[in-house]
Write a structure and sequence with these properties.
There is one protein chain. The chain contains 14 helices and 19 strands. Helix 1 packs across helix 13 and helix 13 crosses helix 14. The longest helix has 18 residues.
Length: about 425
């Protein structure tokens, strides 16, 4: 049995902790640490009150601690005191680098669910964390980046498709559909600050050859990246309608998303990668209004003699995503559609998961968005601790063997489906 330190006390952290407690044979001891220890204690109490806790005859020992993850010396000291086999960062992506620094100082491996994003800029890319590759490798440590659903499972899906069904993958469309309804006029299903920064940024997609690409909207910029090019568009400029299994027809919009960057480096033969997410009209209308009045700004403003960041103030006004579980109904559908060749023949393949909000709440007290991120984080940790994902250095999920992770998805509550005759996205 292993010992894990989990940093974070939001909805995703609660799911990850609960799923670890469902697997005590791997996760013998768990420390939940956050800036607000009361939230850690609430997660602990909720888990220990669940009927499945200790049902296997043994139980994960759960303790809590207060920590500011940006205080690297103090965090390092806490890691050295607890001596975990793995530190899981399920907090904010702004904290990735500080926690990685503490892990290096303490000599412990690392896992997170989203790549680094500087707090002063709505921009995320892997370069900041990839810069740690040599340091982790020399230290004999592993860092697993972006082990949620998207990023995370979408990259495992891609590695699985590449390993089993394709000689080359030419196009990939990642589709993220939330068909749930929480009843609020406007709320976000994960951290409001991160969610709003993500969806209000410019859209972009990855292409191998800009000369062959024919953008359908006015392209603001094409810039080179590694083996290919980024094509940037205005926010929400590209819209598609797709009929999702068990959810129905939904409007979806092209966004920039972090896994496009790593997949562009690692998929053999890839020519184009896009990411689409569904949004209802009420959400988009409210978001546009908030943008127009400046509430989504991330730069500080003066307010009655104090500096405040509007989006942080907005976050305080919106419902906490961790409270949405009991009122959210419906399902999510997240997956990947591939087109490529195998033995010289055209292959189209779609692999996806459907997750029910109410079923998630009944099991762990969470809505499906937190569930679909927290469960993969636990699975990635399980694969590492059981010696299945142990390559030293800094890695994204598609760089590991996908088979053990795919098997665990079916066991741990996120079973996947596949189709070899999918409806393709125009």
């Amino acid at each position: 049995m292993s010992r894990v330190m989990l940093i974070g006390a939001g909805g995703v952290a609660g799911v990850a902790a609960a799923k670890m407690a469902q697997n005590p044979e791997t996760f013998g001891e768990l420390l939940i640490a956050s800036r607000t220890e009361a939230r850690c204690k609430a997660i602990k109490a909720d888990i220990e009150a669940r009927p499945w806790y200790a049902a296997k005859g043994t139980a994960t020992k759960i303790t809590t601690a207060q920590i500011d993850a940006m205080d690297v010396p103090r965090l390092t000291a806490l890691i050295q005191e607890y001596k975990p086999d793995l530190v899981m960062n399920i907090a904010l992506p702004y904290q990735d680098l500080a926690i990685m620094d503490a892990c290096l100082a303490a000599g412990v491996s690392y896992l997170d669910t989203a790549n680094y994003e500087p707090p002063e800029e709505a921009h995320f890319e892997y370069s900041w964390q990839w810069a740690y590759r040599e340091r982790f490798e020399k230290a004999g440590l592993t860092a697993i980046l972006g082990c949620g659903f998207d990023p995370g499972v979408t990259q495992v899906f891609s590695a699985y498709a590449q390993k089993h069904y394709f000689d080359e993958i030419h196009t990939l469309d990642i589709l993220d559909c939330n068909g749930g309804d929480h009843g609020y006029p406007f709320a976000t299903n994960f951290n409001p600050e991160i969610n709003i920064r993500e969806v209000s940024a410019k859209g972009s997609y990855w292409v191998a050859d800009p000369a062959a690409d024919k953008p359908e909207v006015a392209v603001e910029n094409k810039k080179a990246f590694d083996k290919g090019w980024w094509v940037e568009t205005a926010p929400m400029a590209i819209k598609r309608v797709y009929n999702f299994d068990q959810v129905g027809e939904k409007d979806m919009y092209l966004l920039h998303h972090e896994e496009l960057e790593s997949l562009g480096c690692n998929l053999k033969g890839i020519k184009r990668i896009r990411f689409f997410m569904t949004f209802g009209q009420s959400y988009l209308t409210h978001l546009k209004c908030l943008e127009n009045v400046g509430m989504t700004r991330i730069d500080p403003i003066d307010f009655k003699g104090q500096k405040i960041v509007p989006i942080e103030f907005l976050k305080a006004l919106l419902p906490d995503p961790a409270t949405l579980g009991p009122r959210t109904k419906g399902k999510t559908n997240i997956g990947c559609i591939f087109e490529g060749v195998k033995d010289g023949k055209l292959v189209r393949y779609y692999v996806y998961n459907v997750c029910d909000h109410q079923e998630c709440y009944a099991e762990v007290g969470s809505q499906a968005i937190s569930y679909t991120t927290g469960v993969p984080a636990m699975i990635g940790a399980k694969c590492f601790l059981e010696g299945k994902w142990t390559a030293k250095g800094v890695h994204t999920c598609e760089e590991f063997d996908p088979d053990p992770f795919m098997a665990e998805l079916n066991v741990q509550g996120l079973p996947w489906k596949e189709s070899f005759d999918p409806v393709m996205v125009p």
